[in-house]
Structure formats: structure tokens, C-alpha cells
Amino acid sequence: MADWGPVVVGVVLFVLLSPGLLCELPGTHRHVDFGGFHTNGKAIFVHTLIFFAAFTILTLALHVHIYTGYNSR
Description:
By secondary structure, the protein is mainly alpha-helical. It has a domain at 1-13 and 37-68. It has helices spanning 5-16, 41-61; strands at 2-3, 23-24, 33-34, 67-68. Strand 2 (23-24) and strand 3 form a beta hairpin. It is elongated and about 55 Å long. It starts with a strand and ends in a 5-residue tail after the last strand.
């Protein structure tokens, strides 16, 4: 059985936390920019820290697991 939980969590968080897609924190023009499709180095760093923290909490603390395949017992 394969555990796809961390893969799914990583992909969803990557899409949601891509700087400039939904929001950019800190923004180019304001503290928070929404949907500007722009980014800067500070925003990439902040979004990376948020991604790492959320991924760690979801996979290790909340034990998110998605099993696929069949059990051969």
C-alpha cells in the first residue's frame, strides 16, 4: 500500500501558497497583494516558511494519510 497523503498535501499547499497566485505576503505595493501574479524575494521566503510549517503540521502532527492499492493479505 502506498501512502499518498504527504504527496497530496504537498501539491495542494504548493498550488495554494504559490506567491502571487492567490496572495503575496509581503506584497510588492502593499503589505498583502491579492491576485497580482507578481512576486519578490521576500514573498518567496515567507511563502516557503508558511509551506514548510503547514506541511509539517499536516503530515506529522495531524497524521494525514491516504492509502491506495490493495492489501495482499
